[in-house]
Amino acid sequence: MTDALVIGGGPAGLMAAEALLTAGRTVTLVEAKPSIGRKFLMAGKSGLNLTNMQPFGPFLASYGNGLNPTMRACLKAFGPEEVRAWTEGLGQTTFTGSTGRLFPQVMKASPLLRAWLERLDSLGLERHTRWRWVEWEKNIHHFNTPEGTRVLTPRVTVFALGGASWARLGSDGLWAERFAENGIAVSPFQPSNAGLDVNWTDHMAKHYGAPLKGIALSAGTQVSRGEVVISKRGLEGGGIYPLAPSLREGASLSLDLLPDLSVGIVTDRLLKPKGKASLSNHLRRVLKLSPAAQAILREFTNPLPDDLAVLAQVIKAVPIRHAGLRPMDEAISTAGGVSFDALDDTLMLKNRPGTFCAGEMLDWDAPTGGYLLTACFATGFWAGRHAAEYDRP
């Protein structure tokens, strides 16, 4: 018999373990991969964006209009201010960028993870790696380990198995079938925060790697301002990621190359005499359109309209023909997972008393910008705190 078991060593699982340990429970944490927090460390390679220090209303709105009430409660209990205090409590100084994003001063995940594991170890955490969860009988869990099959029978369990992107880092989504077999509603996984597949013509090759800056993208009712990069396979970057929900539903995509100028102003500038200059040089001179921006314009609008008023409208809404989002395993995160209908308001499974779920394995979605990590921390804290209060009959 084990007191409290946490399955999954990512941010949600570690936060659940911390909540259990600080409540006085004895905790065993198991992770299928050879080390803890692999996706967390990968997220920190380009600067660990922990949360966003914007007002709480807009912060919640970033999770979409259909945010589940339990998810809302989790984020209220462990939101941006709590993330900052927790980070600095681990000795990691933070700073807030111009867009509200919170980072550790060192801009890396490894020092934070080391400090976190040291704290958890000092609280008595027992942890095992290379333990893969394979079978489930009520509250009896079977694991494949380097030493053979191991069986744990915990009083309470927190699952934090991740979503279905970046399988090599541990989030393979293979658990979903087993959950469904046990009568637990699981929404199908879909890519989120993913690049876009575009079948470029040959003339785009010289622009691979070029950024498109100062643009706006629209899909359905969603609008995103942010940089994207032209890649061999399509479009990548923070400007495209927030549009994933609309793009998954089949919404068309358009790109505004000059979002800070009205159609009228763009038209007036285009009507300026161009003399002997080529159209490309004219677009560069009067509109400051980069070669990459002009290439995008010509890729999807060829030939360009002779009527400059019509051309201005096209520049403000370039129709982007694409082949959908990149494959799910290339996505930063996934939508889908354990349905909130299968959970009570403590994140405990309704048909498995004493078993809780947290992190990306839950059916929620969010853009990059600190929202993903905050939700993992928040649901891990919520599940761990309530698991600590649970007494199995």
Model description:
The protein has two domains: about 1-190 and about 330-390, FAD/NAD(P)-binding domain (3-Layer(bba) Sandwich), CATH 3.50.50.60; about 195-320, no CATH class. Helix 1 (about 10-20) packs parallel to helix 13 and helix 9 (about 265-270) packs across helix 12 (about 310-315). The relative contact order is 0.20. It is about 30% helix and about 25% strand. The strands form six sheets. It has a five-stranded parallel β-sheet with strand order 6-2-1-10-21, with helices on one face. The chain has about 400 residues and is of the alpha+beta class. It has 13 helices and 21 strands. Strand 14 (about 215-220) and strand 15 (about 220-225) form a beta hairpin.
Structure characteristics:
393 residues, alpha+beta, four-stranded antiparallel beta sheet, 13 helices, 31% helix, elongated
Topology of helices and strands:
Blueprint: E1 2-7, H1 11-22, E2 27-31, H2 38-43, E3 51-52, H3 56-61, H4 69-77, H5 80-89, E4 94-96, E5 101-104, H6 110-122, E6 126-129, E7 132-137, E8 140-145, E9 148-152, E10 154-159, H7 175-181, E11 186-192, E12 196-197, E13 211-212, E14 216-219, E15 222-225, E16 228-231, E17 234-236, H8 244-248, E18 253-256, H9 263-270, H10 279-287, H11 291-300, H12 308-316, E19 318-320, E20 333-338, E21 355-357, H13 371-389
Parallel strand pairs: 1-2, 1-10, 2-6, 10-21
Antiparallel strand pairs: 3-5, 4-5, 7-8, 8-9, 11-20, 12-17, 13-16, 14-15, 14-18, 16-17, 18-19
Helix pairs in contact: 1-13, 4-13, 9-12
